[in-house]
Amino acid sequence: MFLSVRAALTSDSEQPDVTVRGWVRTRRDSKGFSFLAVNDGSCLASIQTVIDHGVPGSEALSKATTGASVEVTGKLVPSPGKGQAWEVAATAMRLVGCADDSYPLQKKGHTPEFLRSIAHLRPRSNLFGAVFRTRSRLAFAVHQFFNEHGFTYVHTPIVTASDCEGAGEMFRVTTLDGAALQEDPSGATDFFGKPTFLTVSGQLEGETFACALTNIYTFGPTFRAENSHTTRHAAEFWMIEPEMAFCDLEGDMSLAEEMVKHLVADALEHCADDLEFFGKFVDKGLLGRLREVAEKPFQRVSYTEAVEILKASGKTFEYPPEWGANLQTEHERYLTEEHFGGPVTVHDYPKSAKPFYMRANDDGRTVAAMDLLVPGIGEIVGGSQREERLEQLLANMDAHGIDRDDYSWYADLRRYGTVPHAGFGLGFERLLMFITGVANIRDVIPFPRTPGNAEF
């Protein structure tokens, strides 16, 4: 019977005739037998296999070096060793694939920078195995959360003609060469007959489905051609974006807070061993922060109040806080880590700093927008109530220099049966950074795309 290493290590009884497969972490030879620590990536731990030198296949033990792949058959028996309940007493071993002396993941500590240079092998390391198991579990938990709340999953386009954020930092998708593109910047002769880009958000398209199916969410890759080399930015990243009809800013904030709590609690329950590893080797304060988020209510503060708190703090910020300017990461971390001592939702931002689709508040200066901030990261969720009033939306488009014809379909949602609606975007990688304590976004994405880097 084939067992994953995880299943073998958590077995509740001895079992004859089991087979484990994986990669050798270490080999230790003794007189007449050898110990192989075998890991298959199903969990952080390896299982010890004890191989007598006379069993079938043992003649290949000298080649079962670190990195080699093996298949070991035997009996699952209680282990006399410390820190392990079970081991495999081998009755046969098969060397599947060798690894020569150039194998770079020998038994020693490796920096994330070094492992980033061998991204095709880094999932075999303890750190990245733990990161990507956590990523897998949380992706499942996202779908589970929305399924339990009655949301419909919608796939919005990756190739789009709309710029949701209006920042202009988009990758153009074209079949034209440089000269033809220069002659025809309008894209009339291009593949789609117009300029098209890799999406920065599925929000606008998601709204069309929310205005028919009430509660929907998207979860997919998004792209930003921002020439940034910071630890928090990547050119390709994943976004979770729910949209809810008949919903206002209050409902939007409540769902975002509930979702973050759910995902953190799910990780604490289902990724306990990997989180313990992160708490020991990556960020010693991690588990305490996660438990605070899972257990404490979120604080809420208006943008105006937040700016007043920052000005009264007595701290010297690199970017002095001023009403009307975006909050910087240093401001967000002060609010969460020093002033409130936990996560906080900031709402009602200045109208001048936000996109055209956000609903204007009655004060004429702010919009019904919100950001959810967490310790160690800052913003992890950004959202708003959408402008459902047709005339106000059209005026916003004009103020932002947006061609009404290009977004006539978006205006139609307000023209035909408009309803209050709201939504938000949760950056999946930033969530992972928060939950794992890993400081660089490049280390929570399987194949990071950053300026100057698109390996594989």
Question: What would you note in describing this structure?
Answer:
About 30% of the residues lie in helices and about 25% in strands. It has about 450 residues and is of the alpha+beta class. The model has no long low-confidence stretch (mean pLDDT about 95). The chain has two domains: about 90 residues, OB fold (Dihydrolipoamide Acetyltransferase, E2P); about 290 residues, Bira Bifunctional Protein, Domain 2 (BirA Bifunctional Protein, domain 2, 2-Layer Sandwich), CATH 3.30.930.10. The strands form three sheets. It has an eight-stranded mixed beta sheet with strand order 6-10-11-16-15-14-13-12, sandwiched between helices. The protein has a five-stranded mixed barrel with strand order 1-2-3-5-4. Strands 7-9-8 form a three-stranded antiparallel beta sheet, with no helix packed on it. A hairpin with a 3-residue loop joins strand 14 and strand 15. The chain has 13 helices and 16 strands.
Descriptive tags:
single chain; 5-stranded mixed barrel; 2 domains; elongated; alpha+beta; 8-stranded mixed β-sheet; 456 residues
CA radius of gyration: 26 Å
Specify the helix fraction band: 25-40%
Mean pLDDT equals 94
Indicate the proportion of strand residues: 25-35%
| Poorly predicted tracts of residues | none
**Major β-sheet, in short?**
8 strands, mixed
The total beta strand count reads 16
What overall geometry do the principal axes of the alpha carbons give? elongated
State the CATH class of the largest domain: Alpha Beta
Q: What class would the helix/strand composition place it in?
A: alpha+beta
Task: Provide the spatial order of strands within the biggest beta sheet.
Answer: 6-10-11-16-15-14-13-12
Count up the domains: 2
